[in-house]
Backbone:
């Protein structure tokens, strides 16, 4: 397929996605019900999660670093927000990553392709457990209450990852990112980035209360099974 034909195909595909997403957005649940569900669920879970978050914060603080880590992500309408997590990496994580990638070409390629490492040297021993159980993501309930995120939605991404969405960048910005979503229950770290984008688009085109509840339940099952990384 020529470059011109590829560009035309991408344009048509993007228009189809935008049309489907726009139609979904006009429905009652995406416009109003989804936010109501987020607030009600967050308030119901808060009394249970706050003590757990406090204990994890104290545990992580033992190495002298911060207990929380707020990473800048792209949210609805392209707004940048801090996505909060329990810190799982060493205090000098960024410096260590730069040095590690410079010394390991294969890891550098893996990072460029997936924006993650199978064997990440920055993660602490406690951090590995938190990631395995997804407990590091509990502070994102604050992002949900603030309206930065939803319980279910596309995966929150950093600015450099927007390029991987190609012509679907605008579609990504139509919704609040989610603590969980289709990609988390469809293979998570075992799927490619292109497959993640496809799953995000699939969710955005078919969002509904029933689907959100199903994904919340499936995520709970995955967390209990300690399938996270």
Residues:
């Amino acid at each position: 397929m020529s470059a011109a034909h590829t560009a035309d195909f991408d344009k048509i595909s993007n228009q189809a996605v935008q049309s489907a997403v726009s139609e979904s957005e006009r429905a009652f649940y995406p416009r109003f019900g989804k936010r109501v569900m987020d607030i009600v669920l967050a308030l119901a879970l808060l009394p249970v999660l706050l003590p757990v978050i406090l204990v994890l914060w104290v545990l992580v603080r033992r190495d002298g670093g911060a207990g929380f880590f707020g990473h800048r992500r792209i949210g609805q309408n392209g707004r940048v927000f801090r996505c909060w997590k329990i810190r799982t990496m060493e205090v000098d994580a960024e410096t260590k990553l730069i040095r590690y990638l410079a010394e390991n070409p294969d890891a550098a390629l893996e990072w460029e392709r997936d924006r993650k490492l199978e064997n990440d040297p920055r993660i602490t021993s406690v951090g590995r457990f938190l990631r395995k159980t997804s407990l590091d993501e509990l502070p994102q309930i604050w992002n949900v209450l603030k309206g930065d995120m939803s319980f279910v939605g596309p995966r929150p991404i950093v600015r450099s990852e927007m390029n991987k969405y190609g012509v679907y960048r605008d579609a990504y910005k139509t919704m609040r990112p989610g603590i969980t979503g289709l990609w988390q229950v469809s293979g998570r770290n075992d799927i490619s980035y292109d497959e993640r984008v496809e799953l995000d688009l699939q969710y955005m085109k078919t969002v509904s209360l029933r689907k959100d509840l199903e994904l919340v339940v499936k995520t709970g099952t995955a967390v209990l099974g300690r399938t996270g990384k």
About this structure: The chain has a mean pLDDT of 84.
